[in-house]
Amino acid sequence: MKKNIKAVLFDVDDTLFDRKLAQQEVCKLIVKQLPGVFDAFDTERVQEEFLKSDQISTDMFNSGAPSEGLRDKRSRLFLQLLGIGENYVPAVTELYVRDYPLVNAAMDGAILVVKKLSQKFKVGVISNGFPDVQYRKLETMGLYDLFSCVVLSEVIGIRKPDTAIFQKAASLIHVEPAECLYVGDSYVNDVIGAKNAGMQACWLNPEFIKPQYENIKADFIISKLEELPQLLKK
Fold it and tell me: Looking at the whole model, is its pTM more than 0.85?
């Protein structure tokens, strides 16, 4: 383990919070709260089309699309894939924003790992995400008050992998980037972004995906968060 780690910073979605699980659960809630709208479809089909529409909108977001109106675009595409009228777009978006961050969907080990590391290191969050749901996810998991910083792209106007968002987090907690370990599941947004900002990077890679770029390597690769505390002891 490299020396002088003073802070461990985390991505949120699919690192601390199981986004796919939460979306599958919120789909069930949307179906229940809009009786009659989805009666022609089984739950699995509804979940499948929502996940498909979310992946498309997420790819748009990661490619630089403006966040304004993006959720309604996702809801519209979701309903189009099912052949349901667009007049339900506002209701689907509203229910999603209300219920999604309240689903108990912490990644395996996330809560215990963050709590354990917070006893020795400063811990924080750097996330590409919307504040109205990201803050509440952290609160739902009972982790929000442990973080020395929560830096969100849609609050400061900078998205990962831009180095400035990582450097902003380091400055907020008064440590140098080189003294930070950043943990995330995205090779481009998390590993490359953190490394280019001067941080050490830990890639959460449960599916053992091959890195996209060999010239920038993660300092560490883990398949589950529970491996992290042991790494930091070395």
Answer: yes
